[in-house]
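Q: How would the structure tokens look for this protein?
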Amino acid sequence: MSLRFRGAIHRAISAVSLVALFLAASCPGPVVKPPDPRPTILARVCLVSNDLAGLFCPDETVTDRRFYTSPLPGEPVAPSILCRTHGDPDPLVSAEVCSVSRLTPNPFCPEKTTIEIRSSSLPLAVCSTHKDPDPLVAVDACSASSLSPGPYCVDRKTIEVRTSALPLAPCGIHTTPRLRVYMGPYDLMGSVGDLRIYLKGIRAAGAFGIRFFICYSWQGSAPLSPYQIVGVWTHESGRTFPLYRLGNPLAPAWNKEFWDKLSIVLQICREFGLEVWLVAEDFVSLKGDQRVKYFNPFYCSEEALGPSTPGGVWGDALKPYHLALFQKTIETAQASGATWSFEVMNEADAIDFSESDFIDWMKWAIGSVEGLGVPRSKMILTTGRAAAALAAEVGYFSPHGIGRPGDIRAIAGIPIEKTIFSSDGFGQGTGPADESGRPGVGLDVADELAREVLRIGAVSFELLDRGIWRNTPAGGSNNRADLSLSSTAVLDRMTRGR
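A: Here is the predicted structure in token form.
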């Protein structure tokens, strides 16, 4: 190319440049940058985490940015993971559920499956469709044996057992009370109040048995006698007394109402598991010149046998009548199915007899009862004298007037293992008082008294609840028990120590 031609080209280019400069100066506007020849990508970025923005990143933290697909050293790199700073506030989680109820499976759900569920829905309720076929239940049990508590289980606890294990077997440890205690509602046959409620109540409080009289002479007001009452007679004092009919020893004039009631009492005692201590006759009322002796059928009958025969009620003429009473009592007890023992006469003394004659009479009575089928081991004696001589004739001896721990002592000539201590005759305690104001055994000594009986090795104890002879119908005399006035607090303390 010639120099002239090249100069012309140079001048042309310069002219174009000048024109461009002129146009740029005269027409202002954006300067368009030439396109970058390197490829890029656009990414939505979380400004907090610098990761890819997720669904849960707040709008104010999100922006769009371009990144080179092949960044050079020092250039920012496009994020590749989602923001982990702003996560799902209620994420999906896996949960195992019952296939039927879609609830948390219990051990008795037959099939289970896994589902995805929002965490806010957890925890799921437990499946109630499938239940334990043998559930646990809370029951009362003896603390020592963990078995069904009986009336003599003192300490108890609540345990959980399967329903298939119910009912629990009865406790085999506490099968008897701590101390065997007889209650003494002596005129039970002529008492007022609900017999069943009374007997059930003392059994629940731990009573082992009861002691009451057949021929009871202290009743005074409307006495219920084993013999028929055929009228009244007037004493020289002006007081009237019932006139009894004894009948013939081979055909006694029994009072059917009395013997029917005795059968019912014995059957209730069998039902409640109470042992019965039957006393055929009562001698206390015959002591001295007490007028209550005129309530004794043997002393004041139509036949007038008692006062008119040698020895009074102890005379030979009356022996067949005594024997008939023994026999009728024993036959009634045997027919009832109850567990019982027998006492010929309460506090037998025969003060108008010599001691030798008295011993002979008692031996006759004991032998007669044995002849009626009662073993001597089931007989009890509460005599006021000749105790050592007669105690050997029977199974048990019961000294009376015992109401304090210091009263518990061995009786000379009588084995302690044959002794049943009794609070009959004790009236100086702190317990309920009778109509005459004599208080019986109180709570203050009940536990210690029971412990002393056990320590010395005696058989049992008879508790006289004097409170049942307060507010008696006749007023002023302890002649008729009101069973509704019974208190079992002392009994409970003696049998259970609580």
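The chain has a mean pLDDT of 86.

Residues 263 and 412 are 38 Å apart (CA to CA).

Upvote if useful.
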